[in-house]
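Late entry, written up from scratch paper. The run itself happened at the end of the previous shift, but nothing got recorded in the book at the time, so transcribing now.
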Amino acid sequence: MIFRKLQRKLREVRHHSRRVERNVFDRAQSIGFVIAAFTAPVAAYTMNEWHRRDRAETVLIVRVYVTVDSDVMRATVVDEGGSKTSAPLMIALADVRLMSESEWRGWPLVTSHSVLPTRMDTQLLGAARESQRTAIIALAQRECERSGLTRTTSTHEHHIASWVFVFGTWWLLISFTFACALMPLRFANMVYRRARTSVRQGRVNRLHCPNCGYDARESVFRGVCPECGSELYERPDY
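Output as recorded:
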């Protein structure tokens, strides 16, 4: 019963509603909306490949040193300021930073996230010689492995929710861009139609043919222009 009442109300609405005619611009807009649906995944994938933000952070700082009474190189973990649970009278040879790097891809949201293997950044200090670099790196490597913070493989994660959001965002952006491109043409067409309608309606008011401008006062009761055969009375097309 409720469904039938709803159907009856909808039929009344359709009957009393003015029919909206779709012009060529509306059809072009619909086609652009469909094209945007196929283009949005390509745009999302392209931004995932091109828009990349890299971030590197220091995980661990290893200081390689010797003491005043020994030439044997040792390694210890220090904090960012350079202090440690310190050995007395040390002569620092190098600071080795264990760096963790990550990549964030996608726009406007991050669609994929990659964590790269850790790397070591070695900075020789004043007391060190270049010939000692290999031994310093090896000693720092053992200290980093002992800490358990080293990473030798890459991990890649894709965020499904972000992919869906980015796809929808690009779909709307491309559709909106297409609509903005059509807007000047729509406006020019509207101005032309309004001007044309105004001219034709002015001719009708003067009992002239709206199509060719022929003076149709003598044919006003027939309703047809004797010159071109068009109707003398027409509803303005807004």
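The mean pLDDT is 84.
(Scratch paper discarded after transcription.)
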